[in-house]
Amino acid sequence: MDKLIEKLQKLDFTELEAKVYIALLQNPQSNGSQISKAIKASRSAVYSTLDILYKKGAIFLLPGKTKVYQAQKPEVLIDNITERYVKTANKVKEELAELEQITVGKEYWNIKGHENFILKTKELLLTAEDEVYINSNYDLNFFAEELKALTDKGVRILHFSFEKSQLKEDIPIEFYRNSGIGDFEPSIFKRMMLVVDYQKVLIASGKIGGSFIGTFTENPLLVAIVAEHIHHDIYFLKLEEKYKDILVQSDILLDTIAEKTFKEKVAYYKSKQKYE
Q1: Which residues contact 168 (CB under 8 A, 6 or more apart)?
Q2: Which of 34, 44, 146, 230 could pair with 30 in a Cys bridge, judged by C-beta atoms 3.0 to 4.6 Å apart?
Q3: Which of 60, 1, 70 is nearest to 29 (CA)?
């Protein structure tokens, strides 16, 4: 009996509620006083518990002047509890899902270390089914095997860079190079922007022989931002090739920190090339 009471407690019964319900099953058509004597509990506590069980639908009143109770059939009781729990659980699941979407969205995973960057990039590339966009000055020979596997199964790969392609193997990728800032030797500072099937994105940067950090996510907003960035780099390159002119003239610059930083980097690379 004690184990049965414990099981009913797991179904949102208190210990006294479980004892009263079981007593009514064993002694149908009983009043509060009779139940009180059967389970050796105070009459006030039993009457209060009977009201709670009645509201729960676990017992019902029999017609008449005196309050005589009957226990709900166990199969009906358990079916009602199950239905109530399922409805509540489904509602909570929906509300939690809405809360997660609003406050969290898709997860972000941080990548630290050069080896972890290589492994994650390879893993991500091999998930591609349709298209891959790359903006990177990283040596793609590290991923030659994965890139070849993708092109062999018909995946389209677009690669944009400001540096010459270092890919040794003859892999049919679409390579776009903007040499407008100079024809420099590959930099020791590397970065990678990678979009796979417009569903996943990886961003990473670091120094060869030094630290490497990055982020991977399936967040649709960041996927769209990086994909647009790579597309605009290629659009910009094609426009300059079409009109045979530098499109960004001094009169349209915005005088921002970003522009000044980029200008400093270009000056650094030019001076580095001059003295090497």
Answers
A1: 141, 144
A2: 34
A3: 70
DSSP state of 143: G
- Cβ contact 40:30 at 8 Å: no
Cross-strand partners of 196? 132, 200
pTM of the model: 0.59
Give CA angle at 214 (199, 200), nearest 5°.
Answer: 5
Rounded to 5°, angle at Cα 100 from 98 and 102: 70
Tens of pLDDT along 161-184?
A: 988 888 887 899 999 998 765 555
**What domains sit in the chain, N to C, each tagged with a CATH number?**
2-102 (1.10.10.10), 108-275 (3.30.870.10)
Amino acid identity, residue 51? Answer: D
- Whose CA is closest to 104, among 194, 267, 218? 218
Q: How far is CA 35 from CA 2, 46, 101, in A?
A: 17, 7, 51
Of 134, 129, 118, 119, which is closest to residue 194 (Cα–Cα)? 134
Please give the pLDDT value at position 263: 75
Phi, psi for residue 214 in degrees, rounded to 5: -165, 180
Alpha carbon 7 to its chain centroid, in Å, reads 37
